[in-house]
Amino acid sequence: MAQSQWTIVSYILMAVFLAMFGTIGLSRWITIQQSHGVTETIMLGLLLSLQVTTVILLFVFTRVNRTQWRYVPWRLSDTHGITIIGLTIFLIGTFVYDIFSIIATTECLDVYRHFDEKYDEKIIDLVLLIFKPLLYMSSQLLFLMWCNYGNIQNNPNIRKTSVFIFAAATNLFFWIYSFLFESKKIFLQEDPEYNITKLDPAIQKHANECLHEESEMQRTADNVEIYLYPVQMEFCILATSLLLHTWSHIKHSRMRMHDDDDMIDFPADNGDGGPKDDANGQHALIRRNNGQDNEVNGNNNVIGGNDADPPPVHEVKCYGLLWIIAIMLMTLMFTFECLLYVETFYSKAILIVISIKTLYDPSLAIVCAYVIYKLKKSGKMKRYGNIDTECVIMLISSLGLVIDVAFTYISVIPTIIYQNVDPNWANECNDLNIIHDISNNDESVRQFLIISVLSLVRQSFKLIQVMLQVYLIIILTSFYTGPIDNWLSECLGFILILNFGHWLSDSIVEVKFTNASPVQEHYFGCDNWLVIVHIFFTLAIYFRFHSVLMLSEHVRRNKHGHDGYQRLDGDNVQEREQPVNNNDHA
């Protein structure tokens, strides 16, 4: 898809800021003792400036395009509306977590005042903790609601769309900062030494607790963070997905503005057979109009009247059976995934979860392959398509799942071949004090090998279904021109629901609970696997949710007869017809 110059500038700025964040973040481990405080202060200042700039740009965009707003009612089937509900929940969770962090920070400000670098860092951190939920996240949520219910994504007259790219990039940078500096117990490092002997003896105990984050309120904030840290990551992922999705729709609306089937613009016809002659186009228009007149008059015997109409297609009756199966599979998998947290049930639940997932991913792969086959046989495929930026971003995010498969192969194959297994594998990382009902070590090793084999089978099908799913979404978005009938809509809904189940599982269990992947954890080590999970599962979570968002657009084509949202009457031809009064299109 053709890009504007400002979009290219946005890409360049995003790459530059990403490189800056990566370089500053790497210095955290290169020179921990020398520049850790300075590094974190620079990151905080840069992140705060980006968030302030994003809020200003969102406000400017809303002011510039306020006359383009068209109210669209909210529907339960509206995935954008459901996403906004999710964003609201994550915003509340972030606000609750930030309250504890603010209280813990303000209680220790009298201590930090004696250490200049620490004090500057905590002041900026305090400002960021207040600004983030109250202005940055909330303004982004209100902006997405304004875009969603104002039908902005289908309006080709929207200007300054680079704000969507900038806001998405800021969300990415916010996640990088949160991952590098706020994730407790992920990166092991030595505590910096502080000279507290110069302080008043009455506050030395309090100072020691504050500087080493061992005060009662800081421990409470850390305990809250264990449960609420993922909500920040989920907010960034969902908001980024919706921002890029809206931006892509605006780009497509601009392209459709010049391809409106209802308008035919004839060039000057000189009658000399030159390049400006458009007799063929006029004859085509005459044939089309005659065909419409004959159809209205009931004259079906005229050649060209109804002969061009396609024969009636047999429509498969569907009663939501696939949706019911998908909901049952998703509920079953997610229920047993949550039971992994129960110490007395872990050894049984992990086998059941792996077995369910071994059926879960092949089901996705089979339905994806079937839908692709039906689309190919429909005869409604364009030979050449235009793969837009949204599909490219989805393709890149799918690499997170490919990385997961690669790490699984690396860990599972040597385990199966050499069978070098610790019988106490379930308690290796001390996340749980698991009570086993296994009477001997051989049974424990056998259970671990069964999990390894099932993981190998499941990950192989996961790789297949990810490739098929990406291919399917690209086909639907860029190549398929036919209708979405009931049966196709039900198959897409099946894929959508199972993807939603994966998103819940990855967000709530896989990222937080390392024992959910015992083979990889046993092979790579507890701390290493925790770092690996936080790196690639962010891409995986984004892919799962964004695929749900894109598939829902095609499912709604069957429910509402259009691509998710009704196109604006007249707005797609404003530049060509130049209407006198914009209120005519309201």
Automatic annotation (TrEMBL):
Leader sequence residues: none
Single GO term (MF): proton channel activity
Swiss-Prot/TrEMBL keywords: Cell membrane, Hydrogen ion transport, Ion channel, Ion transport, Membrane, Transmembrane, Transmembrane helix, Transport
GO cellular component: plasma membrane
Membrane topology field: Multi-pass membrane protein
A Pfam family this chain is assigned to: Otopetrin
Record flagged with keyword Transport: yes
Subcellular location: Cell membrane
The family this protein is said to belong to: Belongs to the otopetrin family.
Name of the protein this chain belongs to: Uncharacterized protein
